[in-house]
Structure formats: C-alpha cells, structure tokens
Amino acid sequence: MLSKEKRLNLKKSFRWVRAGSVVGDEFLRIFYRCGTQPRSLVGIAISSSVSSLATKRNRVRRLTSSVFESLYDELKTGLNVVAMPTNKVLQLSSSELTNKVKVLLEGKNLLNK
C-alpha cells in the first residue's frame, strides 16, 4: 500500500485530477494532471459497479495499489494520478496489470526514462 504522503486523500483533489486528461483501456482508466507539489500523488477510486461484494472491490484496490507502488519511482515529479479500475482487473495477474499500466503511462509520456 502506498504511504499516506504519496496518496491523494481529499474528495476535492480527486475531482481536480478527474478534470484533467485521461488515458485508459478495458481494464482501467487513469486520470492525470500535473500539480505543483514536489512529489507525485496517486489515488485509487473503485466504483460499486465493479462488484457488489466489498471483498472483490478491496482485491481490485490492492492489485491497483501494488501496481502504482511498484511504478511510483518512475512517475514524473508533481504528477497527480487517479486510477479507476474496472471489474476486468480481477482477470489479470499483478504482473500483467503492471505491464498494462506501464504501457498506458509510457504512451502519454508520464514516466521518467
């Protein structure tokens, strides 16, 4: 799990990032916006439409969180990210999801090289 200093926590912060740009595929949508803070911040929003069971939504959150935790050091400085996974994420392994997120972020030049 990402430490508190690396997470977006406020509802207004999520809304601010969602008003930015978006990249995505059938597994998740990633909203991003550049901020002025010295580090990147990541938020994960799981809709109740992903599953009616909290245990499945929590699994999706844990998978997504582990992906962004592994990629956090590669994110550009000052980038704010909100990830919104779909229920199809449950079909992927952690490494497959990491590769998909990496491809999406590299496509928009959001990772340091």
Terminal CA distance reads 24 Å
Strand portion: 15-25%
Uncertain runs: none
- Order of neighbouring strands in the sheet with most strands: 1-2-4-3
For the largest beta-sheet, the strand count, sense and barrel status come to: 4 strands, mixed
Structural class: alpha+beta
Question: What's the structural blueprint in terms of helices and strands?
Answer:
Layout (H helix, E strand, L loop, with lengths): L10 H8 L2 E4 L3 E7 L6 E4 L9 H18 L7 E7 L8 H14 L6
Subunit structure: Consists of a catalytic RNA component (M1 or rnpB) and a protein subunit.
Protein name: Ribonuclease P protein component
GO biological process, one term: tRNA 5'-leader removal
What this model shows, in words?
- This protein is of the alpha+beta class.
- The protein has one domain (4-107): Ribosomal Protein S5, domain 2.
- The chain is 35% helix and 19% strand.
- The protein is built from 3 helices and 4 strands.
- It has a 4-stranded mixed β-sheet, with helices on both faces.
- α2 (54-71) crosses α3.
- The longest helix has 18 residues, at 54-71.
- 26% of the residues are buried.
Give a concise summary.
The chain is of the alpha+beta class. It has helices at 11-18, 54-71, 94-107, and strands at 21-24, 28-34, 41-44, 79-85.
